[in-house]
Design goal:
elongated, 4 helices
Length: 143
């Protein structure tokens, strides 16, 4: 027999209210879609989602793009999803070494920061992979 305390409507309503008051966690798939849509809205740009599988290379970035002829490789993390794994960071470093703009993002603001450097030449501009987006003085409001 189930005790009535388990079905106390006051307690159940309070639990539902606590759950409803928490902000909705934006899933990574939604953040990826927003990033791709942002890139596609730029002139001379195309982006697509890279779907990982057992047949692909491990750690390949989520977004494969070209902006004004420059390769762009981006890894997406949910806003509270932490940092890319070591394998993902290694893949981003390989793309950087080949001259692509490579980085990771948790929102479209980070994508915008990274794309601001499309016309910068390699190796003068290389993204700092320790944080999402760009860490240059211009984007960090450092005089």
């Amino acid at each position: 027999m189930i005790a009535d305390a388990e079905f106390d409507p006051t307690r159940l309503r309070a639990a539902a209210a606590r759950k409803a008051s928490r902000p909705r966690r934006k899933p990574e798939a939604e953040v990826v879609r927003e990033g791709i849509d942002y890139i596609r809205a730029q002139p001379q740009s195309y982006a697509r989602k890279v779907h990982g599988s057992q047949f692909g290379n491990a750690g390949e970035p989520d977004v494969d793009a070209s902006v004004r002829g420059r390769a762009v490789k981006l890894e997406c993390k949910a806003p509270d999803g932490g940092k890319p794994t070591a394998v993902q960071m290694a893949a981003l470093r390989r793309w950087q070494a080949a001259g692509a703009i490579a980085g990771w993002f948790t929102n479209t603001g980070h994508v915008e920061e990274l794309l601001d450097h499309v016309d910068d030449t390699y190796p003068e501009y290389v993204t700092d992979l320790e944080r999402p987006g760009c860490s240059c003085a211009r984007h960090q409001n450092i005089p």
